[in-house]
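Protein 1 of 2
SEQ + STRUCT:
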Amino acid sequence: MKPGPFTHCVFDAYGTLFDVHSAVGRYREVLGEKADPVSILWRTKQLEYTWLRSLMRQHVDFWQITSDALEYTFSAPEIINPELQNQLLQAYHQLDCYPEVPKTLKWLKERGYGTAILSNGSPKMLASGVSNSGLGKLIDSVLSVEEIGVFKPDPRVYQLAVEQLKTEAAISSSSLPMPGMSADRPTSASKPSGSTVSARNRNASPVSTCSKSNAWTRYWDGLISSLPFFPAPSGLHLP
């Protein structure tokens, strides 16, 4: 029996279900002390490029965004290693999921919730991520922004989930019970779609001032925090 008025829990993929830093992690010995700066810069440029593309209305898929961001990253610290660059890019098809993800998804499904991914990722990238992480039986639907040709945090992305899942606008959008969201993206933008949103902030980033918490957000935060297999958060974002 569902413990609330929701029908679906809809998750971001990258940084929420999938560990975006696990790609560089596979080649940490090769990169040495540059590993963490490379991973952080790659992710930062990846997000920045999605925002710029959306603002300029010049859409390309997320694989191109990821490739362009890595190209920039390798030029910034002057890393000249085309083979490693290609290996890192291909590793994005094999990202690890966070250890608590399978148990949390299973817990939700056992209680009657539909589960879905709503992501900037291209369909091929998302299919690879779900398959590599063994989440195929735990995710009911995988929704990509490629269906509308614009990246988060455009509100049309969140409306896509409402329409595709054939539910009311008060669905749980973005990363309701899952960790990994940045402090400002995309939880604030999903509020106008009518979604109830909650996010775990792994890195204790400053809390967004773009939106406010609500009773159901606090309810879910408390509920998910009570799970015995869920890690203690480094910070809690109540958008």
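Protein 2 of 2
SEQ + STRUCT:
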Amino acid sequence: MKLKWWEYVSVFFEAIALIYKCRGLAKAQSYLNKEIAMLQQRSLIMERGDDAMITIDGGNMQSHLEAFMGEILEKIQIRASEEGKDAPAIVEYRKQEDILHEWIRKCCIVDVPGETSALELYEAFSRWWIMGASIKKISLKKFDMMMGRDFKKKTNGIHRYCRIGLLKADED
């Protein structure tokens, strides 16, 4: 087998690294001799066929093994999808959605005719948010994105949401 020039260079640098790691040529040579002996021993074991930790004679068990592996794969997929539900980004999204819907339940009236200014809704949400949920405000862009999932938005110079209104202060 003929090596390419970069393979020679790679082997050369690996040898230098090994000598440096072993802190000398003698220790590196001793290390390599042990590695060679171990590889020769593994090779003999493999030639005899003793290398397998478990030997299975499948015979007519292929259909059973396929069914078993199918069950394992299904369980892995279920677990992966369940763990995905608790991913940090999803948890944060749900938390924010729950907060938005809590505000809507407490401070808004839905399924009403008409439109309400997006800015008016955002300012009311921000006041409610600072009073109870957090000191840091949610941006108008993020609020707009969250509201857009549940309400139709109209733009005619002023952004408005359809079928939602604010409760009067004495109604909540």
